[in-house]
Each structure stands twice: as structure tokens, then as C-alpha cells.
Write a structure and sequence with these properties.
Length: about 280
């Protein structure tokens, strides 16, 4: 995580808080009446919960109420997947909502940043507005026989004409999944031209409905992207904290082995890993 302050007294606080899962209750979940090994999707969701909780903690530690502040996350403001079957998926969703609610209660504008988005929600909206693929002829969208003028287009193609720093209108995500986190956390989004790309920014409903908070998010994203040469510098620094560099990997693995040993859990490298550490022909 990264907390960066600008202004007359600039400062930066960078750190990471790793979590080691090794207990049976951490590694297995209930699925269809039996215990199965935790899969990557649910593990990713747990990480998203931890990251949002960390943002909430940073919000609680706010020291300068006189300075405008924004909380930035990487990715989406939702973690729900319809294909989840694990019994604790609902618990993870509840924890994520609690983290969102905690940030909202402190009125700290929250935004999630998606670089190189491949979504086509606005394109789909145009299809619907133009009665695309309807029986009427000619097609209001300018389609020709055997094809659609909107086929293959993404939202970013639609907004390529935005000037640097400009954003689109705000759109609301509708549907059952959009209501899973409470009305104040319903996902809204806009696209913004950050000079090198068109990025998508998601905000909760309470930010979208507050003009001042929305303007602050817009300004912060644009400022951060310029400082980071096309990508928000705070997110870039946070990513760096989450990566285990090659030079640190052996020390990190030793720390994990020692932690497991203290817990009475045996840890050993695979034969393949051992062979990689030996130099012989």
C-alpha cells in the first residue's frame, strides 16, 4: 500500500502486509457439501477484501482533514462471481461490503482504476438504443447486410476523441450483481483520457452523486497519471511493494519456512526446485 501526500509538507509512506495461509481452515472451503482446496478466484477475492480494508485503515489514519484526499484501488469495485459455489463466498462478499461501508462512512472519495479496459458496456447501450439487430431496415446504427457497425468495438474506441484529461459522463452499472453491496456502493464508472490510454474509473454511488467528490476523483486521477507518465503513481508504488524481487526471493522463502516451522508445519522444496539450485552436468 502507498500513502502519498503532496503540498507544502510532502511525504510518502510505503509498506506491505503479507498474509501466510497454512492452516486447514484457511486452505479449504465448503463446496457442494464437501471440503475442497481453496481456488485462485476465491483467494483473489480475499486479497481484494484485505486491500479494501487497508484503504479503510488508511482513511481512519487521515491526519490532514484540511487537505483533499482520495482513496485509489487497482481493478474493480466488485468481487462477486456468479460461478462461485463455495459456502464462504457470501462471507467474503459481506466483508468486502463492510470495507466499502467503512470508507463511505468517513466520506473519503473512493475510486478503482482499470488500465487498458476491454469492456463494451457503452457500446452495448448504443446497440440497445439503436435497436441493433432488430427486424427494422435500415438499421438506425448504419449497419449493412450481414454485419453490424458496432461489431468488434470496445468502449475505448468510442472515446478516443477525448482530449487529454477529459472524461465521459458517468454511467451506472445495473443488474442483480450491482445491488450486492448496498445502494450506496452501487458501481458507477466513467472513462478518462490519461494521455497514453483511455482508462475506466469506477466509483461507488455516493461518490457519483456528489459533484464535489466526483470532481476530486477526476482531478486526482488526472494528476496521478501525469505524475506517473500515464499510470497513477500511487498505484505504481503500491504494486512495487507487493512484488517480491528476485534478489529478495530466497530471503522471503526462508521467512516462510521459519514461520511454518514455528507453527509445526513441515516445509520442503520439490525435487525440481532442489535440482534448480544445484549446478551439475
Amino acid at each position: 500500500r502507498a500513502r502519498i501526500r503532496y503540498g507544502r509538507s510532502p511525504e510518502a509512506h510505503l509498506d506491505n502486509v503479507p498474509t501466510l495461509y497454512f492452516r486447514p481452515e484457511d486452505l479449504y472451503v465448503e463446496q457442494a457439501g464437501r471440503r475442497v482446496l481453496l481456488q485462485q478466484r476465491l483467494l483473489d477475492a480475499r486479497r481484494s477484501v484485505s486491500e479494501m480494508l487497508a484503504l479503510g485503515q488508511l482513511a481512519a489514519e487521515r491526519k490532514s482533514a484540511d487537505l483533499p484526499q482520495v482513496a485509489l484501488a487497482d481493478g474493480l469495485l466488485t468481487i462477486w462471481r456468479q460461478d462461485w459455489a463455495a459456502a464462504d463466498a457470501e462471507l467474503v462478499r459481506e466483508q468486502f461490503q463492510e470495507a466499502l461501508d467503512a470508507i463511505a462512512s468517513r466520506r473519503l472519495p473512493l475510486a478503482a482504476y482499470i488500465s487498458t479496459p476491454h469492456s463494451h458496456w457503452v457500446i452495448d447501450l448504443l446497440r440497445r438504443a439503436a435497436a441493433c439487430r432488430a427486424a427494422e431496415s435500415p438499421c438506425p446504427a448504419g449497419c449493412v447486410a450481414g454485419g453490424c457497425a458496432l461489431d468488434g468495438l470496445l468502449d475505448v474506441h468510442l472515446f478516443e476523441k477525448l482530449a487529454a484529461g477529459q472524461r465521459t459522463a458517468v454511467f451506472e452499472v445495473v443488474g442483480r450483481d450491482a445491488e450486492r453491496y448496498g445502494s450506496q456502493n452501487r458501481t458507477h464508472f466513467f472513462y478518462i483520457h490519461v494521455d497514453r490510454e483511455i482508462a475506466r474509473v469506477e466509483v461507488p454511488a455516493w461518490v457519483a452523486e456528489d459533484g464535489s467528490a466526483l470532481d476530486l476523483v477526476h482531478a486526482a486521477i488526472w494528476d496521478q497519471a501525469r505524475r506517473g507518465q500515464g499510470y497513477p503513481v500511487a498505484l505504481a508504488r503500491a504494486h512495487e511493494q507487493a512484488i517480491v524481487a528476485a534478489a529478495d526471493r530466497r530471503a522471503f522463502e526462508q521467512l516462510v519456512t521459519e514461520a511454518l516451522a514455528r507453527a509445526g508445519v513441515p516445509a520442503s522444496a520439490s525435487e525440481k526446485q532442489i535440482s534448480k539450485s544445484l549446478r551439475a552436468v
